[in-house]
Specification:
alpha+beta, 1 helix, 4-stranded antiparallel beta sheet, rod-shaped, 33% helix
């Protein structure tokens, strides 16, 4: 017995999963497992790229947050230091430890002169860092690339 495939409604031919007419485009069954694997691989690749992009943003934000915390700690240290002038934003100053016998305990001070500004720096000054007052009244360490 021979089975003949027939469909009386030609408008449905485009929706049928197999060719109905002579000359219809040949197609092979889709390997669903292979397609699923491909989709999963693409999804993983895209998710990994997006994850790496987000993690790079996190690293940048973490670096900015760490820098801000260093500025806050330095600002706290400078505001507890001894100095007798009003710091000018944008100007560089020196943070130093005074270890002389004039004081019973060493203290932190802030001055406008650094070790290179003296013909012979005082022995009781231990220079800690060159710092700059920023416009928002926080302080940041000045990195001297020349030395």
């Amino acid at each position: 017995m021979k089975v003949k495939l027939t469909d009386q409604d030609p408008a449905r031919h485009n929706n049928i999963a197999y060719p109905m007419d002579i000359g219809d485009q040949f197609f092979a069954p889709i390997n669903i497992e292979k397609e699923k694997d491909l989709m999963l691989s693409l999804a993983r690749m895209n998710a990994t790229q997006e994850y790496e992009r987000i993690m790079e943003s996190v690293r940048v934000l973490k670096k900015q947050a760490d820098e801000l915390m260093r500025r806050v700690k330095l600002t706290n240290l400078i505001h507890s230091a001894k100095f007798g002038f009003k710091p000018v934003p944008g100007k560089n100053y020196w943070l130093f430890r005074h270890t002389g016998t004039k004081f019973t305990t060493p203290h932190i001070g802030l001055g406008s002169m650094g070790p290179d500004d003296w013909s012979s720096p005082p022995d009781e000054y231990e220079f800690i860092a060159q710092v700059k007052c920023l416009g928002d009244q926080t302080w940041q360490e000045v990195k001297n690339d020349a030395g």
